[in-house]
Amino acid sequence: MKIFGTFLKHIPVIIFWLLVWEAISFFVQSDIIIVSPRVTFARLFELARTVNFWQSIGISLGRILRGFSYALVAGVFLAGMCAKIKIVARLFVPMIKVANAIPIASFTILALMAFHSSNLSIFVSFVTVLPIVFFNTMKGIESTDAKLLEMANIFRVPLRKIIFYIYLKTLAPFVASAATAGVGFAWKSGIAAELIGNVRGTIGANLHTSRIFLLTADLFAWTIAIVILSYLMEKILKLVMKWSY
């Protein structure tokens, strides 16, 4: 209900930009350059009635979420190791900073030479999200109350309880923030990787086909579908994270 209420608040803004879009398409008068909202949504509904549409979404979503999940686990684990072991920090922090600076296109091309194309979006999503999770988790570890940890050591509190009652409680908001930000990046970078690699049976492949054959209505329809799915993924993850802590 909260998601629906938030959506209702945005309706006036959505209508405004739809009118702007309609006006631009009216003045351009070229279906190759831009199609109207009416044509776009009509095409989206046509695509939504096909099996290929939902199969492509399922394949892309599954692979991108796998890459996102791997990055979430690896980012938290690496941050914990780097915070406790200096040599690990010296080895991995520069690497993650470099990974954060490299463009998605470069990672995609490198991955195409190293992996099967079906794993492309998994790898690119993983590499894109890992730095976000890692650095957010590091901030969370650094903000942990040192006095509380000292007290736990004085009273010889078991490590298991220190991790659960001190570290996890402190880190939860930081990891949740990284996850909600990262899922959007994972989705965008994963689709971009599929497009560049023309990975068969995915959303990116459909975008590639639309570009090659100048199917502007299809291109706009798939783009709208991507935006909607990205919005829903982010909102659902926020709810899950809120319930978890």
Q: Cα distance, first to last residue?
A: 20 Å
What proportion of the residues is helical, as a percent range?
over 70%
Mean pLDDT rating: 85
> Unreliable segments (pLDDT under 50, ≥5 consecutive)?
none
CATH class descriptor name: Mainly Alpha
Helix-strand category = mainly alpha
CATH third-level topology: MetI-like fold
- Report the CATH architecture: Orthogonal Bundle
Give, in order, the helices and strands. HHHHHHHHHH
- Overall body shape: elongated
CATH superfamily: MetI-like
Give the biggest sheet.
Answer: none
Proportion of strand residues: under 5%
Q: Counting H and I runs of at least 4 residues, what is the number of helices?
A: 10
How big is the Rg?
A: 22 Å
Overall number of structural domains: 1
Total number of strands: 0
Write a structural description.
With 245 residues, this protein is mostly helical. The protein has one domain: MetI-like (MetI-like fold, Orthogonal Bundle), CATH 1.10.3720.10. It is built from ten helices and no strands. Helix 3 packs antiparallel against helix 4 (86-101), helix 3 (51-84) runs parallel beside helix 6 (120-142) and helix 6 packs antiparallel against helix 8. The longest helix is centred in the C-terminal third of the chain and has 39 residues, at 159-197. It is elongated and about 75 Å long. The chain starts with a helix and ends with a helix.
